[in-house]
Hints:
By secondary structure, the protein is α+β, with helices and mostly antiparallel strands. The chain is 25% helix and 30% strand. The protein has eight helices and 15 strands. It has helices at 4-10, 21-29, 37-40, 49-58, 65-78, 181-193, 198-201, 244-250, and strands spanning 34-35, 82-90, 104-110, 116-119, 132-133, 142-144, 147-154, 157-164, 167-174, 204-208, 214-218, 225-230, 233-238, 256-258, 264-266. Strands 5-4-3-2-9-8-7-6 form an eight-stranded antiparallel β-sheet. A five-stranded antiparallel β-sheet has the order 1-10-11-12-13, covered by helices on one side. A two-stranded antiparallel sheet has the order 14-15. Helix 4 (49-58) packs across helix 5. The mean pLDDT is 96.
Amino acid sequence: MLDFDAYLERIGLARVDSPTWQAIHRAHVTSIPFENLDSHQGIPVSLEQQDLERKMVVERRGGYCFEHNLLLASALEHLGLQVEPMLARVRVGGAPPEARPTGHLVLRVTDGNGKKWQADVGFGLGTLLDPIPFGPDPDTVYEQSGWNYRVVEDGSELVLQTRGPDGWSDVYGFVPLRVPRVDIEVSNWWICTNPRSPFVFGLIASINHDDGRREAISDWSGPLQAMIMTPDGVESSEQPRTVIPDKLQQFGLPGFQLGENGRVHAT
């Protein structure tokens, strides 16, 4: 990380003496929004370290999974931890296996005692708030501000699941093998440039609160929806697109307006 002190300031930990890496994980996920405003505008997303810090730290923007988790990885490596990136396939929505691209990034972190953890600050509508022990353990439930998670095995994949009012459901699955940087770059390029990618044709932005509430806007399923998510369920309401700039500002993302084509542009 090029400016670790600026990163700590960005996530509200500048005045905390030697914060733990677990505290950094939670502070990151509750401070930096999830958003796809660059790819939505037709701007390819750079994963270069200087661009990640410029965008999410200096300019106080957000990002999506590749950006979030690579920024976190650089911070944890700054602290001397070993970080291994792994590509995951999103399962939310029940997509069949053949329709699941490697569109998500998750981290395996090894701490100073050799214990391995699953870390993820970049899953837009349901990311971990805190790291969890790495590996399958279907009998152990990890509670985080009211949300419940567990990890199960499905063939060669580890699957993160969350428990809602209707029981357990899959979030994403991944093969627990470190992937080279070039594979991450290829997946990121598909996500941010392919016309069939929802990160290109649609809009999504969300913010996590420390009490477990999640607020989001998204038009991935059609009309714009404003959502408030809690462990007890989702409140969703259809909204006119004219509310988008105000909603983004509420998420800490000022400086955007609607163009004549109904898409969002930077002012």
